[in-house]
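Hey Z.,

So I finally got round to the zinc ion thing we talked about over coffee. Here's the setup:
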Amino acid sequence: MTETADSALNVEQAGAVLAAEAARFASFGWMRGTAGNLSVVTSRDPLRLAVTASGLDKSELTPSDVVLVDGDGSAVDGGKPSAEAALHARVVRLTGAGAVVHVHTVAAVAMGRRHPAGVVLKDLEMLKGLGQPAHDQEVTLPVIANSQDMRVLGDRLEAARDPRMPAVLVAGHGLYVWGAGPRQARHHTEVVEWLLELELASAT
Ligand SMILES: [Zn+2]
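And the result:
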């Protein structure tokens, strides 16, 4: 079934989806020590996102461990969203994505150190998993400097973003990846991480 950008979810359903996605990423070691956060759009007008709650072990989330936020990342019905909820909301506003994944992976941080101007990817069949029409298309994964200020980080992401690449690497931090819905965002995340792991393993 094709995933649409506007598959309507209530908050409980969104929480169940995000808990399952978080458990998967946690099992890969990409959300250690409560790191990272996930979101899914529950409404476009007004814009609402369900975002994983802050400070919880991402392998143990329940459907109620989400916070509903508005287009600025502020909580709508109480609760404490992740500090990074504002960036999730900005990515959604900027790209029209239906789901955003933020993970802290070793490969992302290592590759951000080696390629602070961006990670060039070419001649890899796996690029098709990011919507590239052919394996020989060259595309760059943008790398931006980290910040604790989500407005600053959002400005950097907006300036660096390549519309062909549904991801940005934050140096010294991790990845932001998005898709039309949670399943596509997951696939994009797994493909980007695979490409980073490959480039890391191939580096001389
Ligand atoms: Zn983070």
